[in-house]
């Protein structure tokens, strides 16, 4: 070891090479080469003219070449300066990219997002697209997907057990929804029902069929929509037994205990023995969406997944 700690081992330097220019000096060099005027370059760089001149002289000393010819009136690049300018610009551009990349990484979110789904929403293409885009934008966010029953897909939001939920509106007060898709609804009938073999039917033809009900804790605004209650002409809806999820719903339909209305995707995703799906000509369509508590809309993870949902919806 040499006294002073500047050299260790076989003559290896421990500090920066004094001949190496700084990125800051190269940035000053590029600016002066573009302006060819010390005063204008200094103003552009928000430094004093004397500081710029001193830094350029130090850069020339480090490089061992003269970069500019100076006179009382003009500043011009030397031949060596013109050659080195392209390299200096490359270094400055690389440093800018590095700084931008580091800033992006610093802004990336981390944490855990708990996502609820109901029915077959986890399998829908828009759900996969939203979660894929969220992962692409924020790879450090852990995504935890949970399947929910009719009775808890709203309560889980209000209890803060989940952060967002892919569902089928309408929703109760206090919840916001980003719509993702629109889809027809179908009548889900027992295969033994005389209407089950029809290609299309009307709501009036279903007036006397009991509709499977849901547990009392499910917001009525949601199930009234799915039960089509009230019916055109204020025809009363007669309710049958209660189901807490789609499988329970389909089981009761197959047993002939009642009927229900489901999104058209159910025909492909939930084919079941004893169950038939029939188009209803005068049944309004349904929507699918991503929902979160209005009070949580400014939370970083909620904003991130809502942004991904808006991007998917617009596409």
Automatic annotation (TrEMBL):
InterPro entries: LysR_HTH_N (IPR000847), LysR_subst-bd (IPR005119), WH-like_DNA-bd_sf (IPR036388), WH_DNA-bd_sf (IPR036390)
A UniProt-annotated Pfam family: HTH_1
Segments for region (Disordered): 1-21
GO terms for cellular component: protein-DNA complex
Domain of life: Bacteria
SUPFAM superfamilies recorded: Periplasmic binding protein-like II, Winged helix' DNA-binding domain
CDD domains: PBP2_LTTR_aromatics_like
Keywords assigned by UniProt, alphabetized: DNA-binding, Transcription, Transcription regulation
MF-aspect GO terms: DNA binding; DNA-binding transcription factor activity
Domain HTH lysR-type: 21-78
Record family assignment: Belongs to the LysR transcriptional regulatory family.
PANTHER family the UniProt entry points to: HCA OPERON TRANSCRIPTIONAL ACTIVATOR HCAR, TRANSCRIPTIONAL DUAL REGULATOR HCAR-RELATED
Protein name from the UniProt record: LysR family transcriptional regulator
Lineage of source species: Bacteria, Bacillati, Actinomycetota, Actinomycetes, Kitasatosporales
């Amino acid at each position: 070891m040499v006294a002073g700690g500047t050299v260790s081992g076989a003559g290896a330097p421990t500090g920066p090479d004094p001949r190496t220019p700084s990125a800051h000096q190269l940035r000053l060099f590029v600016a002066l080469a573009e302006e060819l005027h010390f005063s204008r370059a200094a103003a552009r760089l928000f430094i004093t003219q004397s500081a710029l001149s001193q830094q350029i002289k130090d850069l020339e000393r480090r490089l061992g070449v003269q970069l500019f010819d100076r006179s009382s009136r003009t500043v011009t690049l030397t031949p060596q300066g013109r050659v080195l300018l392209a390299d200096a610009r490359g270094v400055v551009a690389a440093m800018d990219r590095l700084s931008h990349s580091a800033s992006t990484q610093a802004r990336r979110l981390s944490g855990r997002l708990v996502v609820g789904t109901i029915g077959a929403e986890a399998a829908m293409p828009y759900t996969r697209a939203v979660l894929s885009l969220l992962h692409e934008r924020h790879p450090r966010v852990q995504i935890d997907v949970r399947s929910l029953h009719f009775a808890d897909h709203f309560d889980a939001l209000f209890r803060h057990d989940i952060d967002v939920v892919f569902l089928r509106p309408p929703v109760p007060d206090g919840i916001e929804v980003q719509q993702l898709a629109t889809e027809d609804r179908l009548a889900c009938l027992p295969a033994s029902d005389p209407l089950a073999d029809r290609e299309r039917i009307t709501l009036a033809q279903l007036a006397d069929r009991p509709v499977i009900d849901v547990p009392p804790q499910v917001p009525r605004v949601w199930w009234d929509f799915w039960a089509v209650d009230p019916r055109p002409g204020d025809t009363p809806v007669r309710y049958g037994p209660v189901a807490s999820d789609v499988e329970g719903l389909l089981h009761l339909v197959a047993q002939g205990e009642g009927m229900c209305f489901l999104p058209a995707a159910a025909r492909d995703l939930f084919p079941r023995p004893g169950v038939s799906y029939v188009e209803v000509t005068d049944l309004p369509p349904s929507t699918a969406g991503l929902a979160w508590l209005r009070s949580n809309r400014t939370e970083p993870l909620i904003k991130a997944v809502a942004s991904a949902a808006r991007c998917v919806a617009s596409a």
